[in-house]
From TrEMBL:
GO biological process, alphabetically ordered: mitochondrial tryptophanyl-tRNA aminoacylation
Source organism per UniProt: Anser cygnoides (Swan goose)
Protein name: Tryptophan--tRNA ligase, mitochondrial
Sequence similarity: Belongs to the class-I aminoacyl-tRNA synthetase family.
Record has Chaperone as a keyword: no
Amino acid sequence: MRRRFRACTLVPSSPRPPRPAMATPGGLIRAARRGTLAQNMVMDRIFSGIQPTGTPHLGNYLGAIQNWVNLQEEYSSVLYSIMDMHSLTMPKEPAVLRQNILDTTAAVLACGIDPKKCFLFRQSLVPEHAELAWILGCITNVPRLLRLPQWKMKRASQSNGGTVGLLTYPVLQAADILLYKSTHVPVGEDQVLHLELAQDIAQHFNKKYGEFFPVPKAILSTTKKIKSLRDPTVKMSKSDPQKLATVNIVDSPDEIVLKFRKAVTDFTSEVTYDPASRPGVSNLVSIHAAVSGLSTEEVLHQSVGLDTAHYKMVVAEAVIQKFAPIRNEIKKLQEDKSHLIKVLEAGAEKAKELATPIYQEIRRLVGFQ
Ligand SMILES: Nc1ncnc2c1ncn2[C@@H]1O[C@H](COP(=O)(O)OC(=O)[C@@H](N)Cc2c[nH]c3ccccc23)[C@@H](O)[C@H]1O
């Protein structure tokens, strides 16, 4: 089933994002859609990324990766990156980071990302990301970065008051996107403010150096924010200290059942969808609809007569069914580390080929050449 996308920041809701013109150093890129070679058609470019935190959770999958899989079918130029440089902003042991990179790669491949249809690569293998981040950092104001909620939240967990890397993380994110002149960025809702910063930076650069970057738009899935199972007022997150809050896509059936059984709802037993007044049960309905491919109305219709305790088990079962084949595939892929490394290296070579002429032009524009 094709999912519907919502192009955000803020483009009106539409089944498919619009296709803005994309200027490149060599002129307009031709051939937008796979298999279409009509001259002078302009091309969209999809870019997104995920931090290597090991295996993704339900929020990563439903908010982003599921969209990525659909978009690689729809668009001819698609890049997905394992954001290892971003990962350093929350300190990790080198061995853990190394393993997480491979596990995240295995997971996205198992979810259906196909390196023949997109470039899947490790961010740090293309050093131009960091070089462009420096240039963009020089046209970004510190107060703008200080206002971003992720900085405020995450710096509280760092004993040193927050590192430069953590503060400038969104500038690196803007560089990730703009280095490829990307036009659309599929992300979950928590990344929208970062996308808005990338838009502002692109516009600022264009104003200073002449029209160069397309202004990238976010693409949100219908399940743009999956909430914690322990506190449905906050997003589901890998770093949540409450182990029952987050469902990982490799969790065993028993773990999934336990997490849904303990999911926080309220004292009304009926299953309804009202995110403002009933965030807990509404989160379950959203998850159920997303993993089963049904609409919210269909899910509610099927749940008539069930109380929330029973309903939690229905949702757990739907999640188990959805992720069983993916879980098996992840295990298989994890056994072949050299294959995973090769995929990331081959993807990086292709990404670099795209990035090099764009970055050369940026160097010329700012006066390095
Ligand atoms: N509870 C949730 N509900 C719905 N969606 C969610 C949930 N949790 C996470 N997501 C989405 O998963 C993707 C990867 O998350 P990360 O935290 O690794 O995502 C991050 O930390 C980014 N900064 C990585 C990044 C670096 N450079 C980029 C350039 C473009 C796009 C993304 C990036 C994201 O789309 C995120 O929105």
